Structures are given as C-alpha cells and as structure tokens.
Here is the input.
Amino acid sequence: MCDERAGTSAHYVVEAGRVACIVDPDRRAWHAGSSKGNHESIGIECRPEATEGDYATVAALVADLRAVYGDLPLKPHRAWTSTACPGVWDLGKIDRLARGVKAPVKVSSGGTSVPAAKPAVKDGKLVEDGRWGTVTTSALQRFLNAKVRAGLKVDGRTGPATWKALQRFLGHPVVDGVIEHQSYRHTELGNGISPNGWVFSGRKSKGSKTMRRLQKLVGVAQDGVVYEGTTKALQRWLNAQ
Here is the structure.
C-alpha cells in the first residue's frame, strides 16, 4: 500500500498493538473502490485473522478518530464496492469496544441486553474521563457560540465549522478549519510507543499547531497531539467556564 504503482492505499494499517498511518486522515486515500467512498471515509486495513488483540487496537483507533472527527459510523468495505471484505470482522463489536460498552449479556427472558455506557455528564458538569465524544464536543460548540458568535449547530459532531470557530477563539493565524495530524503523533524517531502503550509508525510530524494552542490554553504539554490528558484538561477547563 506504500507502492505508488499499486493504485491502492489506506489511511491506517492495524494489527494487535500496532497502528501504522500511511495516509493522513485529512487527505483522501484510494481504499474504498469507489470515488464517493474514497472521498467520504477513512480507510482502516485490518488483519484477516481478527484476533482479540486486533479488535482492541482497531477499537482504540476508532475511538481516537471519533474524538477528532465526531461520531463517525462504521461501514464495511462492501458498502462501497462488490467484495467479501471485511470477512469475519464484526463492526458491531468494534463499535461497542470503541464506546467502552461491554458485549451483550444474556438475560432470563432469553434475549440480550447491553449495559449502558458510563454517563458523560454528572451534576451538570462534563465527566472528566478523557473521552472527546459528542457531549464534550457539544459543550465546546456552546462555548464557541457564546464567545465568538460562531453560530454552530450544537450537534456534537466536529468538522471544519467547529475547528474554524476554535481557531478564531485561539487567535490562530490560519483559520481554515483543518486540524492536521490530530489523532496520532507520527514520531520523529520512525517508530515509537504512545502514552497508551501502542506502537505507531509513520512520517515525521510535529503535531497540530491548533492543538498546541489549545493545549497551552488548558495547561498541558504542547505537543500538538490529542490524547487522554489533553481531553481531560479541556473537560476540566470547560467545566470551569
């Protein structure tokens, strides 16, 4: 997939404990088999074995991507083109793992029930859990509407309009709605271990300039990479406003 002559690519290639980013998720990859799919989706290439370790790492990636791009739905490759892909992979399981919801459990009636996810708001305040989901995004959108008259729809979905409003509030010199390299730091040493213990590889990057400004605002290390610590600090900061 790194061979330009192959005519195919993906944003991420994942196996248990390892994520490789080969196309920036802000850019279009040639992965879906259709122009619409390539334009509208982020492609994750997964091992066909689908081990529990593979599931855990893919789910962690999905959770982090949603923290940046909003509550993205999961679609199989066959939604875009005629293929047997994703094979044995269970997208529902990935979704549950990414949301921190346990697998369905049997109940006496013979049906199933899914335990509710932990609440994101308690006593009118954001739960400082480090998960940048729809509730935290909605709180940020409300704040930006009040501070910079952004006129955002408070829907919990991140996108260019929300990022532009954030850039204006932060005094960023470029207001383009683009937050480059938001999810993962492509280590300057080639391969490295993230704060969460997963291994990443990719090209050199210093992270997002917009996110470095946000990190300065909320009082954490300014590396331009949004991890749990940055999100917790943002939640704490929003609670204090």
Observations:
- The beta strands are 12-15, 18-21, 44-46, 105-106, 112-113, 121-122, 125-126, 191-193, 199-201.
- Confidence is low (pLDDT under 50) at residues 103-116, 181-205.
- The two ends are 46 Å apart (CA to CA).
- Residues 140 and 228 are 16 Å apart (CA to CA).
